[in-house]
Specification:
A hairpin with a 5-residue loop joins strand 2 and strand 3. It is built from 5 helices and 6 strands, in the order H-H-E-E-E-H-E-E-H-H-E. By secondary structure, it is of the alpha+beta class.
């Protein structure tokens, strides 16, 4: 993946995916978490209004938590870069957090763990890369997959 493509990679929902996304976004609003999912809420970088989408929160062995953007440089990624903080929501509970973007060189173990946990769900966005990929293969795709450490 060349740097320009990786820096602008954004796989938008197509077909029935927008309808399915709306349905799945409803689950955390109702307090239902599937495999650790949460509703990510981030202030829009232009409007200042809350924008929400369902995410998978990865907790590493050391307890560090991450958000990975399998679809690439999406609107929530752009908003989080500007805002630097947001909320993880489940039902009526809202957990405020701050976020720091992870450098490409540090993403390999996070991407591998993410694929181990949710490859069944998001594998299609990784275009053939799996949890069994080499470190070099994961490093090669890292620029196209934003990762944030959250606290």
């Amino acid at each position: 993946m060349d740097a320009h493509t990786a820096a602008t990679r954004n796989i938008a929902p197509t077909g029935i995916e927008p309808v399915m996304n709306c349905m799945f976004n409803l689950l955390p609003k109702l307090g239902i978490s599937i495999a650790g999912s949460r509703l990510l809420a981030v202030r829009g970088r232009k409007s200042g209004e809350w924008r929400t989408t369902m995410v998978n929160v990865l907790t590493a062995e050391d307890g560090t938590r991450y958000l990975v953007a399998p679809r690439g440089h999406t609107q929530w990624v752009r908003n989080l870069r500007v805002a630097g903080s947001g909320e993880l929501r489940l039902g009526r509970k809202a957990e405020p957090f701050t976020a720091v973007e992870v450098a490409d060189a540090d993403k390999v173990p996070v991407l591998r763990d993410y694929l181990k946990r949710w490859g069944w769900e998001v594998g299609k966005f990784f275009e053939g890369i799996t949890k069994n990929a080499t470190d070099a293969e994961l490093a090669d795709i890292a620029p196209g997959f934003p990762v944030f450490r959250i606290a």
